[in-house]
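Q: Hi! First time doing this. I have a protein sequence and I read that you can turn it into a structure. Is that right? Here it is:
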Amino acid sequence: MKPTIKHKRLAAVILLWAVLPFAAYCASTPYTGRTRLILTTEAQENEMGEKSFREFMAKAAPSRNRSYVDMVERVGKRLAVVANKPDYKWEFAVVESNEVNAFCLPGGKIVFYTGIMPMFENEAELAIVMGHEIAHAVLRHGGERMSQAMAANFLGSVLGALTEKDGKRELYMAAFGGITTVGLILPYSRKHEYEADETGTLFSAKAGYAPEAAVNFWQKMMKQGGARPPEFLSTHPSDTKRVEYLRKLMPKMKQVYSSSAEKHEYGEKLR
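A: Yes, that's right. Below is the predicted 3D structure, encoded as structure tokens:
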């Protein structure tokens, strides 16, 4: 039996009522000014990021491709300077994997997989992905996701307690799960991606890399194709919307680039 409109409405009312105590933990993101919930401290997030990075690298196979490693470190250090987080212990690693991916952990731990490296034509395109990952760290998206999970767990326990003696408790819980996933977690994940695109391109332009590389790179990613879930069920915006968004940012980013202290433009080509 599926949750009805009644179950969904009650779950939504309880969600709104129970979320009020969290209002005191709201803060604004740097650069974008968005109000968000943060229940963790930056020190806690950085400590978890450090631990996760050490555990990951203990099992990973570091790349021996000096061209890859040197470019990731060179671009990473340039962007870390303009990100202006001297308290972060920045580290940049390249590991062997066919997966087309890169990620960042809180505190400035950046990992690129060798599978994504051939996608970059030059330093500027790598800088776009590097800036995106650095932005996730600086904007504390990891801490925000942890806070959302903590809040969702708390609200779920409240709903469970209030409906404990109700014969339709499972329906209420199912409705709550759908509301929090599609109505809260997924949209915020997409907001994180847009924020990381904007702030990351800003870092890249400040560091002296041509911002047009952002559009070039994501257009290439669009051509990769592959099955994708509908956007409202995806944690990432569609590549088409991403490119449209980046195009709108170009006038602002070109001004930032023109004011940068150094000009690397597209930088070295990946060998």
